Amino acid sequence: MSYGAMKTRRKLRCTSLSEGDQSVSSTPSNGSPEFCVANFPTEGASLLARSFGVGRPTEDEVEELRLSDWFNPRKRPDVVTTTDWLAPVIWEGTFNRQVLEEYYGRQNLTIGLAVLATGRIADQYLELFIQSASKHFMTGYRVIFYIMVDAFYRLPNLEPGPLQTVQVLNIRGHDADDFHLMRMKNLAVHIVGHIQDEVDFLFSMMANRVFQNDFGVETLGTSVAQLHAWWYFKNTENLPYERRPGSAACIPLGQGDFYYDGTVIGGTPLEILNFIKEYLDGIMRDKENGLNSTYERHLNKYFFIHKPTKLLSPEYSWDTVLWPPAQVWLVKAARCLERAF
User: Which residue among 278, 296, 315, 338 is the active-site one?
Assistant: First the structure.
């Protein structure tokens, strides 16, 4: 299993998907923050459909980092640290950050963090999300924050730190009744249009969270799934999978590995694009059968079939409603409580 860089660095760019759209290119230099604003129409779905079958360009091979070089599951006998398919489950205490920093520091990485912030989500959470991410997300590495908004006036004062870039991406309000569908459709369009050429690894998160401690390179992998804080410590027989046989998201009774949190997904841009394709295909099949399952259940079906190469413990997406049990040593990011109007 390789956790190396995907490619050599390419110049950052913002690409329009239709004639007449304006884009502004921005390449960070000397570690100073830059901004890029782009306008992508959601009508780019036809381009998206044509692009799903296109592979990434040929990439440079790099020396592989062995799992045993940085990961020691025996240091956490109180929790599951390795899956049945031998993927690591990252808990505080299991990883050697110094080894990881030495390795990834030579790879010239850029990591992307995409967030869709529309309506009251932007009003309530976006500023704190960016402020905390600037302090704790992949510090010491080049980071591009992709902020997808429906209205520029909702943007708070954004102050990225050294090596950090902000790209504000305009979206249209289609699928407004299904937030996750809108989130994934827009993310796919941007991955195809430019993100795949700009970053080595990509995370997509919900804005209603605050980073509290380092969310670092120990989380990088080809396909990264987040364990759900609500369900990790529950009886696996009662996990809320889709059980209706006619649904594309169905996991039959008696089957299933873990229950994954739909608010966080990570990996290479191509792997995330593969997930979005299967998610959208699953929605269409369900619609044809008169069914409607949730985004999170489709995500769990995807990871049941396509096993993630790395799992993040609930420490990386804790819910502030819950009191952390003894197994949660250090909360990296926590969901904010819903604020009433």
Answer: 296
Q: Is 59 a catalytic residue?
A: no
Binding residue positions: 228, 296, 319
Q: How far apart are CA 341 and CA 109, in angstroms?
A: 41
Angle (deg, nearest 10), helices 295-305 and 269-288: 120
Q: How many other C-beta atoms can be found within 10 angstroms of the C-beta atom of residue 152? A: 10
Q: Is 190 left (phi over 0), alpha (psi -120 to 50) or beta?
A: alpha
299-337 pLDDT, tens digit each: 999 999 999 999 999 999 999 888 999 999 999 999 886
> Nearest Cα to 150, choosing from 174, 133, 134, 167?
174
The residue among 125, 123, 126, 165 whose CA lies nearest residue 142 is: 165
Assigned CATH for 96-232+262-269+310-335: 3.90.550.10
DSSP run (H or E) holding 173: none
Q: Express each pLDDT in 266-299 by its tens digit.
A: 999 999 999 999 999 999 999 999 999 999 999 9
pTM for this model (two decimals): 0.82
